[in-house]
Structure formats: structure tokens, C-alpha cells
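User: Can you predict the 3D structure for this chain?
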Amino acid sequence: MMSIPNMALRVPLPDPCNPSGPPGHRPGCHIPVDTRSRARYRPVMTWDAELDATGLLCPLPVLKARKRLSALPRGGVLRVLADDPAAVVDVPHFCAEQGHALLSAETETIPQVYLIRRGG
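Assistant: Here is the predicted structure, written as C-alpha cells:
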């Protein structure tokens, strides 16, 4: 099992008006720039364990997620991959009932990707 620190990383985004030039130097650009900050960032979520539940049908993705979450410390993050159409309803309901936090749900992709933080 791979252990990744449980924190958001900061990844710089390219400047849309001047991707190759220095930040803040944007001649003719229509997008305002905040010269106090030299880069814009977006958070990247990391996880402590991953569960590949593709090919499994209801209720197996949730049952396997429950088992995997029980092995994680409180606050640990589990990434679940699922392609069961019922997981769109089952995973959020499971998190709400069991006291876990659903950090993100990418339901438009195949497989669907869920990030769950273990609760109490």
C-alpha cells in the first residue's frame, strides 16, 4: 500500500495571456493581474489508499469501501474507482450514514472517482 501525505499540493497554473513570459508582464492582455501574487494555484487532492471497484455491482463497491476505510486511520483518504451506475447514489448515502466526508465525486467519467475522508 502506497502512503501519500494527506495534504493539498499547490500546482502553478500557466498565465493565459503570456505563458512563456514572466508573471505580471502582460502587454495588451485583457485579463487583470494581481501583481502582489506571482502565480495562481489550484489544489490537488492526495489519498492514502485506493480501491478499484470497477466491474463490481451494488452493493459491493460500498461494502469494499467500508472494509478499506476501516483499515485507515481517522482522517485518512480513500480513492474509490467504480463503474456501477448505482454508485452515484450509494457512495454519497454511505458516507452520510457512516459519518465519512465525501471530498469529491467525479461522476461524469468512467470509471467514476470518489474521494472519501474517514470519519469517527
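The helical segments are 60-70, 87-98. The chain has a mean pLDDT of 78.
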